[in-house]
Each structure stands twice: as structure tokens, then as C-alpha cells.
Amino acid sequence: MSNLSRWYRNYARFTLKMLGTVAVITAFTFLIVQCTGNKVKPQPVEAPAVDYSQVASPDFNADSAYSYVKRQLDFGFRIPGSKAHVNCANYIAETMRLWCDTVVVQKFNTTLWDGQKVEGRNIIASLAPQRDRRIMLAAHWDSRQWADHDLDTTQWRSPLLGANDGASGTAVLMEMARVMSAMPPDVGVDFVFFDVEDQGIPEWAGRYEDNTWCKGAQHWAQNPHRMFYQAEYGILYDMVGTDKPRFTKEEISMNFAQGLTNRLWSCAAYLGYGNIFVDELSGAILDDHLYVNQILRIPTVDIVQNSPNCSFFSHWHTVGDHLDVIDKETLKIVATVSMKLIYSDFPNEQ
Description:
The chain is of the alpha/beta class. It has one domain: Zn peptidases (Aminopeptidase, 3-Layer(aba) Sandwich). The chain has helices at 4-8, 11-19, 21-36, 62-74, 83-96, 163-182, 215-222, 251-270, 288-296, 328-345, and strands spanning 102-111, 117-127, 134-140, 188-194, 234-238, 247-250, 277-282, 300-304. It is globular, with a radius of gyration of 19 Å.
């Protein structure tokens, strides 16, 4: 994922194309406010019509999810082209086959910012693939090659394990698939694990190109695993495992999926997590959801860590992003909020 500051100079071009000149002014206002520390409060959201405490949803096992984070890290650096990358892809696909009706491994070839050609693997695991009505839950599973935000400049070309940035979202998807398969909602569910998300151009390269990020999402949005694929909505999980979780209403999510975003945050507040899902607008993030929204037009929200210092979290793109940064209860909170919303929309009929 690309940093907020790098979006400042690129977001105007995207917004002008997608949302018009008026939205450009609005987007710039949000970005400036986000990075100067002033808070722009969204319009008040009406109290939810659903009593989420009464919605029957699966029980997410935090210990199980944590074990999936650890298992991914045990493979090592999940960098495209490496043995660890292939082994971890096989592990995710094989594990998802335990619970899902179908698993598709979508291989694709892509070129990184430095001309390196790699093979990526998107993994799509589905519950009830025969259903026309669907939702999409997504995360990226690769880990970054370059710790270009490490305080130690000698580490800038070192790989990182990506415990929070990659493995946490993947683990949430895996545990959600396990528990949802035993209590399926009244909708088809596609768990999409994007590859080659985090291999974008490093800070030390001396230039910036936004399309060097999210290669797997770009490929899948242009070549979905099913022809004419559509979903009611999507939720993307990125960096959802710190011990100081803070998720704000990110701008692209609000532009493309405002209703879904507001409902998720309202559900979180109802369940007592309003201090974690903070009712605050924040600047645009270049993440996988951009391409899903832009190309497939599936309204997709990004649940992504947003620490108040205008970055993501303290170990973002550093060699310190290892297992110790993960708080298993944060994984559970994120999944619980998500499943309460999903099962309020599509109750289990069994």
C-alpha cells in the first residue's frame, strides 16, 4: 500500500477522472486536513435500524486467527518469485479448500517498478459459488521486499515479514471462512487473497508511480475469476492486527461505498467499538479496493489502520513488522463487526 503523502500529488488525476472537478476540491480539503492534524467530522449518521446484539453470527476464534498469522510468517518473506511465496500460496489454497466449495488459484505475470518480472497468484475461495448474489471479502497476502520506511537506512533494501501488513488481513479471512462455512450466510461469499500488492516503488527510488502497487487487484479486476463477476459489496482488510487499532472512514471508501462504510462504522459503535472504528473522515489510500471500485464497480470499503500521526502504524514498511506487533483481540474485533453486518444483511437460514 502506498503512503498518504504520496497520494497527495497523484490523487487529483484520479479524482478528476472519476468524480469531477468539485470532488477534486473536496478531496484536497480532506487530504490537507488529515495531514495537518485538524479533524473534519462527517455528517452525523442515523442510529442503526438493526439491533446488532441480536444478530446471530459465527464466533470468531482469536487464537485460531493468530495461529494463521504465525503460520504465514513461518514460511519467511512472502516475496513474489521466492520459494516461501510459492509455499505460502499453496498453504492458503489448501487450507481454504477445507472450508470452501471452490478454490481458484489465478496465476498472472507482471512487471515490478524496476523491470523485474514475477509470477503472482491471486487466490479466490468461495462459499456457495452457485449463488448469483455475492459479497467479496479481500486482503493481500504478499510481504514487501523493501523496508524503505525503517529508521535504520541500512535496512531500506531488506525484506520484511509483514505480520500486520499482509498476514493480519489474510488471517482474518481464513478464520472468517472457517467459521462462516459452518454457519453460512444467505449469500455467496468470495474470499479473495490478492498478490503483489506491496511491491510498489520504494521511497529511495527517487520517483513515484502509483500503478506499481496492487498488481494482483489490478489483474483480478480486469480478469475476474468468473466472467461478468459482480458482488453486492466488498470489504478489504489491511493492517488489522495492531494493539492500538484505529480505523477511520477512508476517502475512496466513502466516495464509492459511503452507505456500506457508514453502516460498518455504525455497527461497530453499536457493539461498543466506536473508539476503534472512529467516526472521522481521512484521506485517500491507494489500496486494492481502488481497482475493485474503479474497474468492477463493486462498492468496496477499506478497513485499514490509520494512526493519528498521519501514517499507518509505527512498524509500517520496517523490519519490525513481525509477530510481536499482532494483537489477537484486534483481529477478533474487526471480524466480529464485519460478520455482524454481513449476517444482518444475509441471515443464516438453517
